[in-house]
Amino acid sequence: MTDLLLKGANLLGDNGADVLVREGVIAEIGSIRAAAELDGRRLTVVDAAGLVLLPGLVDLHAHLREPGREDAETVASGSAAAAAGGFTAILAMANTSPVTDTAEAAERVFDLGRAAGLVDVQPIGAVSKGLAGAELAELGLMARSRARVRVFSDDGKCVHDARLMRRALDYVKAFGGTISQHAQDPRLADGSACCHEGEVSGRLGLPAWPAIAEDVVVARDVQLARHTGSRVHVAHVSTAASVEIIRWAKAQGIAVTAEVTPHHLALGTDLLTGYDPVFKVNPPLRPDEDRAAILAALVDGVVDAVATDHAPHARHDKEHAFPDAAFGMLGLETALAVVAEVAVRTRLLSWADVADRMSFAPARIAGLADQGRPIAVGEPANLVLVDPDASWTVDRSASQSLSRNNPWHGRTLPAPVVATFLRGECTAYRGRVRGQFDPEEIA
Amino acid sequence: MTRKHLLSSADLSRDEVDSILDTAASMHDVQRREVKKLPTLRGRTVINLFFEDSTRTRSSFEIAGKWMSADTINITGKGSSTSKGESLRDTVMTICAMSVDALVIRHSASGACHQVAQWVDASVINAGDGTHEHPTQALLDAYTLRQRLGSLEGRHIVIVGDLAHSRVFRSNVITLGRLGARVTVVAPPTLMPSGIGDWAARDGFATSWDLDQTLYAASPADRPDAVMMLRVQRERMSGGFFPTEREYTAGYGLTRERLARLYAATPDLPILHPGPMNRGLEISAEAADATSSAILDQVSAGVAVRMAVLYHLLAGETEAAA
To answer: Which ranges carry the Dihydroorotase catalytic domain (chain A) (predicted)?
Structure first.
């Protein structure tokens, strides 16, 4: 591994400095003289003037589809999309086929991630066996496995049985686990629900997904978290009322955290009027009032993190009639740009805030010790360089993902990722990943 | 008119609605001839692609096509597709690969016709998509009402029933609105679509949970000029939308008693129903078979209106209608 010198980057968007990385660790920060070699070791010097240096991004919520749907995504292709998007760690959701509900399944995903070597892939374990919502999966064995699973989720389905949720919250206290809940009361919004309940769903005649179906589960879960003294994480919170419940719960000292997705921040219900299944996602795109509320909560910290809910799907699974098409949209490659568009360009968040919501906080929630660390001497060099002043046009065919269900296709977004570094190694450069670019290009 | 598809009633301007209804009137005359064939669509291929059961809509499109000399072919698809089955796109692309001029589509999923229109070169006609719209039904209802009432400008049309799941209601509020009618829709709150308050305010129709208040308004100007009853699917009861059939009928059925009271004020009140009817649930036998019932007129108008729609989409304005 060559050493790395990032010249003149704006650390967290603030003061410019040079950052020297040696053997994957930040060795020095300050004004450092560039040279081809340093102490006899080869040195790659990157001109980072005008670029923002952030800690490598951490995604609490990605669907990598392997095992089971390797035609839509693999751990390797999802890792590539993540690296291209500035991530150095991603949490892989458990709803694969078979489900990640055993230590062996978790280790397999973990090993596939290490083999791809582009980001740290951390498996999420299922809460219930087979996501059936009936019996607890082997939470403890997954926690004790090589994969050291700490986040558990039945995502895609809600742990709707209150007793099962209570038991899961209680049980994971033994090893510091967190339950990430997909909040959707199945009696108020069943599997067919695909459009936010309101005027648009009424006009379009689409099965309605009311906000209240999320709110009642969030309200119940924060009370269960209080009762058990355990930690609950609200996945992809999408409604104003859920945000208010979380705000209240945090004020009570309840251990609740929450994430929002870039698409819920930026895209609204009205996009469904053309019945394009690329906009079909669960929870559904919400109206402006909800979007404003979750954005405000991300800004004031009631919502802790941005998470992508990256959900690749084979083309034919999106070419059914809207109610029959698969839920979900791509997100890893566009997440940072969308956050920059809705929150940084509008001066609601600083780059330091972005580092918090997309790296520090998610790493803390996930219990990842070596990710989401400050940019400081002695810390692992998981870093991302962003061009804050440039813009780029999203082209779904240029994606690292195997899938093309990209709702941002054709849009111009700000702040492209220039380069991503995992423990000092450049994993992605301008949309291409290791092997697709010449390392000399970076210098 | 250079329209290619008919996907939603909102596609049609007032002029287009008027033009289609005028054409339908001349088509209706053709229907009364001994030899009903027109050469207008000779050599054109119209596929009736029905993913959902239908008797009257499919047969009326088939007859309409045949009387206009189009080659009409019926294809019955499987119900709703699943992730394991063939995608909707694959199904329609396969059919369109056989050089088709128009696809008449009925599908259980809302929006299916909109999606298909993005994929194919053929004209797409929505023959009912899920709980979204049924534009040709609204046109034939407007045609029937116009036959009975003359101009619909300022006329008060009351639509009663399962609005939440009704594509007929969704298309009718648009088309009747285009023609200047005042529309009031009546249903229990559980059978109202989501967000109907905002929707009605924006589109200028009225809503009510109280049928009697709507039918027997104090001011004669607010009384209905026509009543349209919608089918209530019995399976909705298992969804708990209302407690029992008799309770529904008591609140929202066009019963013998309600009919008698209506007739006392307006003996020739047109009564419409898109069918199939649940006699005894939303409509009594007396109302269905009343002298002023327009229900069979609707069926008859269905063929003429669908001929007019095919004509407008496929033949262009330069050719003569008859």
So the answer is: 51-240
Alpha-helical (H) ranges within A65-159 are 75-84, 103-116, 139-144
Identify whether A413 is part of a domain.
yes
Output the pTM of the full model. Answer: 0.95
Helix (H) or strand (E) holding B25: helix B14-31
Cβ partners under 8 Å of residue A136, min gap 6: A127, A128, A129, A164, A167, A168, A171
Q: Would residue A117 count as lying in a domain?
A: yes
A285 and A172 share a domain?
yes
DSSP states along B239-266: GTSSS-HHHHHHHH-B-HHHHHHHHHH-
Planar angle of CA B142, B143, B148, nearest 5 degrees? 95
Amino acid at B203: D
Does residue A84 share a domain with residue A45?
Answer: no
* A183 and A79 housed in the same domain: yes
**A274: nearest CA partner in chain B:** B114
Picking from B89, B118, B194, the nearest residue to A201 by CB comes out as: B194
Among B87, B116, B165, pick the best mutation site for testing chain A contact (most A Cβ within 10 A). Answer: B87
CB A322 within 8 A of CB A280: yes
Number of domains making up chain A: 2
What pLDDT score was predicted for residue B220? 87
Is A239 found in the same domain as A180? Answer: yes
B298 vs B142: CA distance, rounded Å? 9
Domain of A105, CATH number, reads: 3.20.20.140
Give the model's confidence band at A382: pLDDT under 50 very low, under 70 low, under 90 confident, else very high: very high
Look at residue A371 and tell me if it is in a domain: no
In one-letter notation, the amino acid at residue B172 is N
CB–CB contact B89 A319 (8 Å)? yes
For residues A31 and A118, what is the distance between their CA atoms, to the nearest angstrom? 29
SS3 A112: helix
CATH of the domain at A39: 2.30.40.10
CB contact under 8 A, A206 and B88: no
- Residue A432 belongs to domain spanning: 3-53+377-390+400-441
Angstroms from A158 CA to nearest CA on chain B: 21
Q: Is A85 in the same domain as A64? A: yes
Is there a contact between A362 and A58 (Cβ–Cβ < 8 Å)?
Answer: yes
Interface confidence (ipTM) of the complex: 0.93
Alpha carbon A400 to chain centroid, angstroms:
16
DSSP characters for B142-199? HHHHHHHHS--TT-EEEEES--TT-HHHHHHHHHHHHTT-EEEEE--GGGSPTTHHHH
* Contact partners, residue B76, CB within 8 Å, separation at least 6: B50, B51
pLDDT digits (tens, 9 = 90+) for A225-282: 999 999 999 999 999 999 999 999 999 999 999 999 999 999 999 999 999 999 999 9
In the predicted structure, residue B316 carries a pLDDT above the cut 90: no
Answer yes or no: is A23 within a domain.
yes
A60 and A135 fall within a common domain: yes
For residues A383 and A349, membership in a common domain is answered with no
For B62, the token pair is: 């088939």
List the catalytic residue out of A3, A18, A309, A356. A309
A197, A274, A319 member nearest B194 (Cβ): A197
Shared-domain flag, residues A129 and A153: yes
Answer positive or negative: Cα dihedral of B250, B252, B254, B260.
positive
What domains, with CATH codes, occur in chain B? 9-134+302-315 (3.40.50.1370), 135-299 (3.40.50.1370)
pLDDT for the residue A366: 98
Mean pLDDT value across residues A159-167: 98
Binding site residues of B, as ranges?
Answer: 56-57, 84, 106, 134, 137, 167, 231, 275-276
